[in-house]
Structures are given as C-alpha cells and as structure tokens.
Specification:
The chain is α+β, with helices and mostly antiparallel strands. The protein is built from one helix and ten strands; from the N terminus they run αββββββββββ. The protein is elongated. It binds FE2/S2 (inorganic) cluster (FES).
C-alpha cells in the first residue's frame, strides 16, 4: 500500500466512522427526546342548557347521552359499551341501556345488569364553559351520582 492509497483508505474510513457516529448520536437524541403527539381535545361543547329538553338527549356524533333533570341538573353518560365498544341505546320506559351487539343491559346508573359486559357505563364530567354552553369532558370520569346544576332559561 503506497502513501496515496493509505490516505484514501484512511479518509474513507474516517468518513464512515463519522457517519456511523452521527447516526448513533441522532438515534440517542431521538430516544431521549421522543416526538410529542398532541391528543385531540376531549372537552366538547354540546350546547346551551336551555337547548336540552328534560330527560335524555342522545348526541349521536359524540356517542353521549345527556340527561337533564329538573332537580339534579345535567349529567352525561358515554354510550360506548364497555364490552366491545358498540353504541348502547337508552330505553326510557325501562330506564335501562341496552347494547344491540351482544345483549348487555345496564341500569339507569350504568351498572351492568347482565350480558357479557362486566364493567359499568362511564359517566363524564359536565361543566359550564365561559360562553355559557355545557361542555362534556370525555377524559374525566365521574361517579354516576355526579350532576351539574345550572340555571337554564327554559
Ligand atoms: S359490545 Fe355491547 S355487549 Fe358486546
């Protein structure tokens, strides 16, 4: 190996070593500082209190039942069946929720009565937004006794 070959080989080796080192440092930085993924907001504005009739209102797009009671106020239950995620239906006459997929039935508090679902329906926090609309926070579970009392104009 003459001098020219030695330096050519040495330069290629250094370049390869540099690329390998830079790749390793890049991987380490990515490992230590992973990308942050913002979750979509789970707080949904659903309308003004006076927009809701007394009793249950089903919000199909949000898969939420909003209940307006003249003494207790507003509460919201997720319509997502805890078994495999079908949308439950509220049967007002029986004051129960039933799931059309596999037959789970829940009482008015969301407790599973029978069927394959072993967990209750989730109740979600209802609050009043600054603009006066009700908002439901899908990320905040509350007990079935929770309700929001507001002065509604109708
Ligand atoms: S998804 Fe509701 S019972 Fe299976």
């Amino acid at each position: 190996m003459d001098r020219r070959q030695f330096f050519t080989c040495s330069t290629s080796g250094m370049a390869l070593l540099f690329i390998t080192g830079a790749t390793a440092v890049g991987a380490l930085v990515r490992f230590l500082y992973p990308g942050v993924y913002d979750e979509p907001p789970q707080r949904l504005k659903i309308g003004y209190p006076g927009d809701f009739a007394f009793g249950p209102t089903f919000l199909a797009e949000e898969k939420i039942y909003v209940f307006r009671d003249d003494t207790k106020g507003f509460s919201a239950a997720s319509a997502v069946c805890p078994h495999l995620g079908c949308t439950v239906q509220y049967v007002g006459n029986d004051r129960q929720f039933s799931c059309p997929c596999h037959g789970s039935v829940f009482d008015a508090t969301g407790k599973a009565l029978y069927g394959p679902a072993s967990r209750p329906l989730e109740w979600l926090e209802v609050t009043l937004a600054k603009d006066g609309q009700l908002q439901v926070d899908g990320g905040r579970k509350v007990p079935d006794s929770y309700s929001l009392r507001v002065q509604a104009s109708s």
